[in-house]
Write a structure and sequence with these properties.
Layout (H helix, E strand, L loop, with lengths): L5 H7 L2 H11 L3 H22 L2
């Protein structure tokens, strides 16, 4: 069994590099755009909760 904390992983990963790597295998720009928006939203929501 592997126990991972993905929330902390996405806090530290370089989103630009991740999008670049994903773009090499995912050729649908709409999917890449959706992933990029998800990552931005994730960070925004995380920061908002940290300041409360």
């Amino acid at each position: 069994m592997v126990d991972l904390d993905l929330e902390q992983y996405f806090d530290t990963v370089d989103h630009s590099k991740l999008i670049q790597i994903l773009s090499e295998t995912i050729h649908d720009g709409r999917v890449i755009s959706l992933i990029h928006k998800f990552l931005k939203c994730w960070n925004y929501d995380k920061r908002r909760k940290d300041y409360k």
